[in-house]
Amino acid sequence: MNVSKALTKMVRYIVLVIFFCLYILPFILVLLNSLKERTEIISNPLSIPKSINFANYLSAMEKMNFANSFMNSLIITVFSVALITIFSAMTAYVFVRIQSKLNKFLFFLMVASMIIPFQAIMIPLVQIYGSIGFLNSKWALIYMYIGFGASLAVFIYHGLIKSIPLELEEAAMIDGASRLQIFFQVVFPLLKPTTMTIVILNVLWIWNDFLLPSLVLIKPEERTLPLSTFYFFGTYSVDYGLLMAGLVVTIIPVIIVYLFTQRYIIQGVMNGSIK
């Protein structure tokens, strides 16, 4: 019996190691090829670099205007995530605490909207907002991210707010707190694990997003980091060394954020879904 359990555990461990290697292999290849010259990448993309050369990183950061693109990505991500978090929490609070047929209908409408793929509405979206001159702006992109990100956040918040005892709010109300004070001083602090989950998921999504910014941000000075990596694609050729280096410097910030905050993701999702 013990032998069988040990064998089963070993098989599971081996399978996990295999899946981990398959998962991490693309990242390792990108990192290794970012240190090679173009000819070395083309001749043998799977090999270890003959010498460590960081020239690709310097050239990539200069060509993609890294400082400007980084600030654009940072502004868009910070404002989008902050507004999605605050507005979604307040919306979910209203849906839970104010019981009405209208609120129930609006909540189910928001949940149902999550099944609509972005690709189905991106062309009408660009046509409509382009006709009113609302494109080519970071703030227009932030506005769209709020619309696309609010549904999931409201759904997650809704489940957790339902579990918060109403007596806490009644006690605060007796002490003279307004509805807004009750939300920000009593309810919102209790949503911290879920808030961290929503923040992390939206940071990962918005920072790495390519499709929506490519439709909205046309001017080079407005481009985000993922869009700036497109500079390395020529008409007939691709500078793979610079492209790999550009990808590495693009994903490093969000990987750092994820590594420090990953423990909140599962905890927050479970809190919002099972309560």
TrEMBL record:
Protein name per UniProt: Raffinose/stachyose/melibiose transport system permease protein
Source species: Anoxybacteroides tepidamans
Regions that span the bilayer: 12-32, 74-96, 105-130, 142-161, 182-207, 240-260
Keyword tags: Cell membrane, Membrane, Transmembrane, Transmembrane helix, Transport
SUPFAM superfamilies noted in UniProt: MetI-like (SSF161098)
Annotated localization: Cell membrane
Domain ABC transmembrane type-1: 70-261
UniProt record similarity statement: Belongs to the binding-protein-dependent transport system permease family.
Lineage, uppermost ranks: Bacteria, Bacillati, Bacillota, Bacilli, Bacillales
Keyword Transport: yes
PROSITE patterns (alphabetical): ABC_TM1
Record keyword Protein transport present: no
A Pfam family per the record: BPD_transp_1
Membrane topology: Multi-pass membrane protein
Gene Ontology biological process terms from the UniProt entry: transmembrane transport
CC terms in the record's Gene Ontology section: plasma membrane
InterPro entries: MetI-like, MetI-like_sf
